[in-house]
Predict the structure.
Amino acid sequence: MGLGTTFPAVNKTRAKSDIFSADSELVTHITHWTDDLFSFKLTRRDNFRFRSGEFAMIGLPDEQGKPLLRAYSVASPYWAEELEFYSIKVKDGPLTSRLQHIVAGDRVIVKPKTVGTLVLDALLPGKVLWLIATGTGIAPFASLIRDPDTYERYETVVLTHTCRDTAQLEYGKHLVSQTLCDPLIGDEAVEKLVYYPTTTRELSPTMGRITSLMDSGKLFADLSLDTFNSDNDRVMICGSLQLNIDVSNRCKAAGLTEGSNNSPGHFVVEKAFTEK
Ligand code: A2P
């Protein structure tokens, strides 16, 4: 019995340090955008590679020292020195209830494998790239709108972001204004990037669900762009499950086919990762 009580305690300590030494990064910056939303930056080890738009498993050790991991889209572009993530704070969420309290110098586990369908290679060549986001679904697009390849492949890049209120749009607004004056991609972004923020529950210049704005034609009229067609338009969708279904259905109705890494198409879709 004596040994039995001693060994787990020793193992626990060892497990914790192993987790942190293997796949972890140091927290460098944290920004709390609202009571429910925050972004953070981590150091990036030299051999950490990803394609813009992909996600990684990241997290913290739990009480037992086991890794508690969730899928997070990398919000920084592939060329950035640091790794950026954008997160909701879920009340009583096993990971985010603790992750929201990280401070500079803390360690966060970042597993090396990255995957995802919101990548440029999963789309056939086209003229207009639509990035349709709700809530934290903007994260993979934060990476893609800072990737020079995005502007090489498309004449116009439209980022729509719909949130309940204007405070929830702040991260995106800041992201876009930083992108427009970025030394690497600012000039191309000024020429090609169109930002279309909308709110559904608070007054703002453009109101409504993105699906309603598509259906009414207001989205296309506001931007002086044609409705979706398979010759020109490529669409990436990232939001709640229902948002993804509803926008996917509109893409299919317009004759667009869904793509994947193995079989590029006209649109791709991924659920925004939120802890339950
Ligand atoms: P709404 O306020 O009308 O529900 P959430 O905060 O629930 O993640 O939602 C983020 C944004 O996405 C909200 O503005 C919400 O609008 C909108 N939204 C949620 N589901 C859909 C959907 N199926 N189609 C279009 N917009 C949606």
Remarks:
- The first strand starts at residue 24 and ends at 32.
- Confidence is low (pLDDT under 50) at residues 1-16.
